[in-house]
Amino acid sequence: MTLVSATHALAQSSAATAPADDGVCNLIVGTYTGGKSEGIYVFRFDAKTGDATPVSVAKTVNPAYLAVSRDRRFVYAVNELPGEDGPASLRGDVSAFAFDPASGQLKFLNKVSAEGNDPCYLSLSPDGRYVFVANYSIAADPGGSFVVLPVEQDGTLGTPLQTVRHEGRGPVKGRQDSAHVHSTVFSPDGRFLYAQDLGADKLYTWRYTADGKGGVVSPAEWHYTEMKAGSGPRHLVFSNDGRHAYVIDELAASVTVLRDQNGRLVPEQTEPLVEPGFKGAVGAAALHLSPDGRFLYASNRGDANDITIFAVDQAGGKLSRVGRQSSLGKTPREFSIDPTGRWLIVGNQNSDTAYVFRRDPQTGLLGPDPKRLDIGAPVDFRFVAR
Questions:
Q1: Domain enclosing residue 176, as ranges
Q2: In this predicted model, what pLDDT tens digit does every residue of 137-173 receive, in sequence order?
Q3: What is the CATH number of the domain that holds 201?
Q4: How many separate domains does the chain show?
Q5: Long-range CB contacts (< 8 A, 24+ apart) of 49-53?
Q6: In which band, very low, low, confident or very high, does the pLDDT at 22 lie, cut at 50, 70 and 90?
């Protein structure tokens, strides 16, 4: 792996992500292995220059999504298996690592079963007691689910306390033949967990019970929001004031704005990610807000391979498109904005590259001449303070 110069989360507090006085923090990158990658990579990221310097690597299989504990001492990674060609009987895993922010070193602690196929998303409960795992499950049997794993005092993961399996399907053959849970996201107040089901076109709402009595989660009174048929809801983020949520629709390549009404998410606006008349393949992937909440960014794969930039109306939460930026590679699955808001890094999974773009906090636009990182199949990015 080489470095080449070229043309919101409840699990992480601001203290955990903010760079030191010298502007340097850790950048942890999750990948798909089997090609040029060996696992999880740690870089030193300089927020003054946008440069990233390799520090360490922890070998593990397909750590395509990561979560970092609030105290920065632990990193959790999915082991996304079996994939499209693996046997449906094979279950994926979740691995726990101790992390030393000062040295940038990861140490493997333990691994537990995700109790499902193709785990693709992790979230920590607001109190840090549980890790929630979304199992996408390419195979209809066992189908999409999410699992609750307890976090022990030493950072290791215990065996699952609760498994929730979804039922349902959508109209898109080959992609919505069964349930596919793609993300599990907590409400800003920590009372609700939202599970986005790409296969069933639904956003499920679960009540979170911190003491775990009667189950860690239980169905909320308003149990789900029905999304547009065939849209394929994938990831969700909340506005900084918590009044709105934004969902990226993978199959429709759009972003939907929803108003939060005490746990009930009500759709208000849907914006496409492609220009009118676009004829190529699409595959919307990730969405993130700028630190100040004024801009929303959304990635689109397929033949688009770009990031759409929206301005967020601070009064009503509505979106208006202000720009578009090529990812300069193939399959921009995930991206992240650094805590200062001055840089955006996007990974091109099928090009083995990532690019660090300078970001204008006033306009939201991304500048020319980004810095390039050569990384095998990069997917997820986490900024962590030293």
A1: 2-384
A2: 999 999 999 999 999 999 999 999 999 999 999 999 9
A3: 2.130.10.10
A4: 1
A5: 50/342, 50/343, 50/356, 50/358, 50/371, 51/3, 51/5, 51/371, 52/3, 52/27, 52/345, 52/356, 52/371, 52/373, 53/3
A6: confident
